[in-house]
Amino acid sequence: MNYTWNWHIFLEPNPTGAGTYFDMLLAGLKVTIVTSLTAWVIALIFGTIVGILRTLPSKLATWIGFAYVEFFRNMPLLVQLFLWFFVLPELLPQSAGLWLKQMPNAPFYTAAVGIGLFMSARVAVQLAAGVGSLPRGQKLAATALGLTTLQAYRYVLLPMAFRIILPPLTSEFLNTVKNSAVAITIGLIELTGAARAMQEFSFQVFEAFSAATLMYLVINVVVVIGMRLLERAVAIPGYITGK
């Protein structure tokens, strides 16, 4: 293979005029982080609501939670992003569809919401499993104390369940970061998109994707260390990570 490595390429100005190629990658990294965090907040909010629905005694609530999870979990993320970005504006009333098409930074909002809803189905399953693993006596004790169902979940069941499922939630958050790379298909220039643009401009493909890989690894290490510290801080003796 006749390939000439050029690690100085990162210090050369990029064709967009916005700094060097390294600045281009950093800008993509920033978009990846912001998109992932926004999507993760959406995933936690909707995942918690749906996870609670799946554990309520109501058959209707259970069915709604089941349908939500099966819809978002079993459809490829790429298809979902295409549906939200290209199909949804055509199905809405003309004024609403036009507003969506003309919304500033539409690829970012579409990616954040689309990835967030996709990951919320996985969070819902994790949370339902966490609530289901709790001893039955905890819910009965909460009821005996006069707590309503909402209060029992808020003050007793959810705090315990979230502590138990923190390790799998770490994996789901890392999956959210990795899934953000799919956003390039709807025009969002995140880290993978920036590496691809650098490769197309400079023809230094290995340097571009080596740097992107290193940046993803740094994110991975920071998230894992942060979540491990959080797990130790909130661990309950006798529950998986507790001692």
Protein traits:
243 residues, mainly alpha, MetI-like fold, 76% helix, globular, MetI-like_sf, Glutamate/aspartate ABC transporter permease protein, membrane, transmembrane
Summarize the structure.
The chain is 76% helix and 0% strand. By secondary structure, the chain is an all-alpha fold.
Helical coverage, percent range: over 70%
- Are there runs of 5+ residues with pLDDT below 50, and where? none
**Straight-line distance between termini:** 54 Å
Return the string of H and E elements.
HHHHHHHHHH
User: Please, how many helices?
Assistant: 10
**Care to count the β-strands?**
0
**What name goes with the CATH superfamily?**
MetI-like
What fraction of residues sit in β-strands? under 5%
CATH class group: Mainly Alpha
CATH topology: the name is MetI-like fold
How many domains? The number is 1
Report the biggest beta sheet as strand number plus sense, adding barrel if it closes. Answer: none
Q: Give the radius of gyration.
A: 22 Å
Compute the average pLDDT.
Answer: 90
At CATH level 2, the architecture is Orthogonal Bundle
Shape label: globular
What is the SS-derived class? mainly alpha
